[in-house]
UniProtKB/TrEMBL annotation:
<dbReference type="Pfam" id="PF02687">
    <property type="entry name" value="FtsX"/>
</dbReference>
<feature type="transmembrane region" description="Helical">
    <location>
        <begin position="463"/>
        <end position="488"/>
    </location>
</feature>
<keyword id="KW-1133">Transmembrane helix</keyword>
<protein>
    <submittedName>
        <fullName>ABC transport system permease protein</fullName>
    </submittedName>
</protein>
<dbReference type="GO" id="GO:0022857">
    <property type="term" value="F:transmembrane transporter activity"/>
</dbReference>
<feature type="domain" description="ABC3 transporter permease C-terminal">
    <location>
        <begin position="242"/>
        <end position="361"/>
    </location>
</feature>
<keyword id="KW-0472">Membrane</keyword>
<feature type="transmembrane region" description="Helical">
    <location>
        <begin position="670"/>
        <end position="689"/>
    </location>
</feature>
<keyword id="KW-1003">Cell membrane</keyword>
<feature type="domain" description="ABC3 transporter permease C-terminal">
    <location>
        <begin position="585"/>
        <end position="700"/>
    </location>
</feature>
<feature type="domain" description="MacB-like periplasmic core">
    <location>
        <begin position="20"/>
        <end position="191"/>
    </location>
</feature>
<dbReference type="InterPro" id="IPR003838">
    <property type="entry name" value="ABC3_permease_C"/>
</dbReference>
<dbReference type="Pfam" id="PF12704">
    <property type="entry name" value="MacB_PCD"/>
</dbReference>
<feature type="transmembrane region" description="Helical">
    <location>
        <begin position="382"/>
        <end position="400"/>
    </location>
</feature>
<feature type="region of interest" description="Disordered">
    <location>
        <begin position="87"/>
        <end position="128"/>
    </location>
</feature>
<dbReference type="InterPro" id="IPR050250">
    <property type="entry name" value="Macrolide_Exporter_MacB"/>
</dbReference>
<feature type="transmembrane region" description="Helical">
    <location>
        <begin position="420"/>
        <end position="442"/>
    </location>
</feature>
Length: 707
């Protein structure tokens, strides 16, 4: 180990706080990355352990053509029962069905199960008993909780009245669901296609049964189901990886800025190393060694926090009585997260390390304390920013012209990243310009003058805070605009395609729409008409909503009915879920940016101790020094809020255009964007609380001596 590296390691041991501040942004990003890995591994373990639709007691899984291909599944089942070696046969059927259940009447999911024997897939009942035959039904546990249905309750399906005998846990999502025994007439119109067979029959004999399309062993079918489910988990991980990458990019910008500040404070130390014989390469390698150490500590800490958080969440949720899947911790992938944190940290520190190695000893000994005060190279930066903006414009135009939603969205995202790259390059000029605009407004307020002066003098440092914040704000603004536009488009689509309160689609039995409309119109609560092969139903003025739902379910028979009010509610619920998940994902990038603001200001105040002390000596009060730091944070937050909202809002509109939705019909959500901008400024000021308190504690004499 060369003397420079030994000095770097010794410095890290003497000042662990510096190591922590430098790697804090990487730690947050690693927590997110490791959490995504643990989540997807746990989901994969859950789905591969229980989501295969093949019953545990099945020996073979058969595919049939179904009624649309001329095959009668019921007849196929009867023929299979006659095959030697077959112990049991069950055809799984599932689909929407109109259910009359008072105020909860509507289109529910109806499925079949043999109820007993080796081919039953039901979990133990939570209440009641199993149906003993046709005319009895099980209700899903979630449905029972939402509707109040309990054993003994009656529901209507296709003009028949069925009795609820029990409550069973079902994986039916948010929809309402019922389970009837195999062979119940209510399941006649349901979609089938897969038949499970128990026993030890000859597979060739099964394949020879008329109506059987394909024969697979139960294990083969389970493997296929598991591969499909695993692919879903991999797709989730791929989607999360995009946001992990954004968080790491933000962390890299923060780390690069932090290393520049730290190295500026160590200029004399590095110069002394050069004076005693350390080469440029040794100095640069010592900085990179410190970056490796920072990355290892931050990455390992982030992975450990993610594992601890996963166990804590599992314990808390499990304590509420909710069934929680067993937490899967993929140690190999977590090691990959730590390695990724190290690589990102080293790459972020590369430029500051090379700059430190290029500093001649004599110049370093006489250099200023803050290299951030060095002006940016305008010609190079402006040229690079212009090229990035040109690329962004070309990608945006191509995204709209292609007309393919997936490719267009990807190109729009690349265009946005190009704009971010331009912002990183031209950030110092943007910050200087914004500070110049604000200067007249704060000319009579000393803390404001100091903050604006620092922003102009240390434009590179301030720009590092604003660009990362702009990335987080821009992602959030784009999400809000895109979700608002997609939500408005979904509502407009519902109103356009369903011009009535209830839409009834012909079933496999009730194919005559005129007869179906006449039957529905005969109810005193309804008016019905046929339009384009479907039946449109509206309630008469003043009709009781519960009576309307019951009348529709009673008159629809085996036809499925869609209540437009339910569709609107489901759409709003889905949009809200997408908005919440999206805000949570991009919020990690915003969190990394806020951490960067706090770390940068903390190091900045520490570096400017002599300057602040001198200002205190000249009459600046303790409160005014605090306000100056807070004003600097507010300035960074305000610039980031304006840039992020404007650029993000534009890219939200671009994403809508690239996906074919077009301009948002309900307009831009200005209120949400204004709230976002105000929140960013407030959070940036809140992140400066620590540096503000430190600035207030600097005494004039202490500051001069410390310098």
């Amino acid at each position: 180990m060369n003397p420079a590296t030994r000095a770097a390691v010794a410095g890290a041991r003497r000042s662990p706080r510096r190591l922590l501040l430098t790697g804090l942004a990487v730690l947050v990003a690693t927590v997110f990355a490791a959490g995504a890995v643990i989540l997807t591994a746990t989901l994969r373990g859950e789905v591969t352990g229980s989501l295969s639709s093949v019953p545990a007691g099945a020996a073979y899984s058969l595919e049939t053509g179904g009624p649309s291909d001329g095959a009668d599944p019921a007849a196929v089942v009867d023929r299979l029962r006659a095959v030697p070696g077959v112990d049991a046969v069950s055809e799984s059927r599932s689909g929407p069905s109109s259910v009359e259940a008072g105020a909860a009447s509507g289109s529910w999911t109806l499925s079949t199960d043999p109820m007993t024997g080796p081919l039953s897939t039901l979990d133990p009942l939570t209440a009641g008993r199993l149906p003993s035959g046709p005319g009895e039904v099980l209700v899903g546990a979630g449905t029972a909780e939402r509707t109040g249905l309990a054993p003994g309750a009656l529901v209507g399906i296709g003009g028949r009245t069925l009795t609820v005998t029990g409550v069973v846990p079902l994986r039916s999502g948010n929809g309402d669901a019922l389970v009837v025994p195999d062979g119940d007439p209510a399941a006649t119109a349901l979609y089938g296609g897969r038949i499970a067979v128990a026993g030890s029959p000859d597979p060739a004999a099964l394949a020879a049964v008329p109506g059987v399309g394909a024969v697979a062993t139960a294990d083969e079918q389970r493997d296929a189901d598991l591969a499909s489910a695993s692919a879903s988990a991999d797709a989730l991980l791929a989607g999360l990886s995009v946001f992990v990458g954004l968080a790491l990019v933000a962390a890299a910008v923060v780390v690069a800025s932090t290393f520049r500040i730290v190295l500026a404070r160590r200029t004399r130390e590095l110069a002394l190393l050069r004076c005693v014989g350390a080469s440029r390469g040794q100095v640069a390698r010592s900085v990179l060694a410190e970056a490796v150490l920072t990355g290892v500590v931050a990455g390992a800490g982030g992975a450990a926090l993610a594992v601890a958080g996963g166990w804590a969440v599992s314990a808390v949720v499990g304590a509420t009585g909710t069934e929680v899947p067993e937490l899967v911790v993929p140690w190999g992938r977590l090691a990959g997260c730590v390695l990724l944190a190290v690589v990102v940290t080293v790459l972020a520190a590369l430029s500051p390390a090379l700059a430190a190695g290029r500093t001649p000893p004599v110049v370093a000994l006489g250099a200023a304390d803050a290299t951030g005060a060095r002006g940016p190279r305008a010609r190079v930066r402006v040229t690079l920013a212009a090229l990035a903006l040109l690329a962004a414009g070309a990608l945006a135009a191509l995204a709209v012209e292609l007309g393919d939603a997936l490719t267009g969205t990807a190109l729009a995202a690349l265009s946005g990243m190009s704009v971010f790259a331009a912002l990183v390059v031209a950030g110092p000029f943007v910050v200087s310009g914004a500070a110049a605009l604000l200067a007249p407004l704060v000319a009579r307020w000393a803390p404001g003058r100091i903050a604006v002066g620092n922003a102009r003098r240390m434009s590179r440092r301030t720009a590092a805070m604003t660009t990362v914040l702009s990335l987080g704000v821009g992602l959030t603004a784009a999400l809000l605009v895109a979700v608002a536009g997609a939500s408005a488009d979904a509502r407009a689509s519902i109103d356009r395609n369903y011009p009535a309160d209830v839409v009834v689609f012909p079933g496999t039995v009730d194919r005559d729409t005129d007869a179906l409309a006449a039957r529905l119109d005969a109810a005193p609560e309804l008016t019905a008409r046929v339009s384009d092969g479907i039946v449109l139903v509206d309630p008469v003025p003043g009709a009781d909503p519960v009576a309307v739902r019951s009348a529709v379910a009673r008159g629809a028979g085996d036809a499925s009915a869609a209540f437009v009010a339910d569709m609107r509610e489901q759409t709003e619920r889905a949009v809200g879920a997408v908005r919440g998940i999206g805000l949570g994902l991009v919020g990690v990038t915003l969190l990394v940016a806020v951490v960067g603001v706090g770390v940068t200001l903390a190091l900045s105040v520490s570096e400017r101790t002599r300057e602040i002390a001198l200002l205190r000596t000249l009459g600046l009060s303790r409160a005014a020094s605090r306000r100056a730091v807070a004003a600097e944070a507010a300035l960074a937050g305000a610039v980031a809020a304006v840039l992020g909202v404007v650029i993000g809002g534009a890219y939200g509109v671009l994403a809508l255009a690239a996906t074919g939705i077009g301009a948002p019909t309900s307009g831009i959500p200005l209120g949400q964007l204004a709230a976002l901008a105000a929140a960013v400024v407030a959070v940036a000021v809140a992140a400066s609380v620590g540096p503000v308190r430190r600035a207030g504690r600097i005494e004039p004499a202490h500051g001069v001596v410390a310098a």
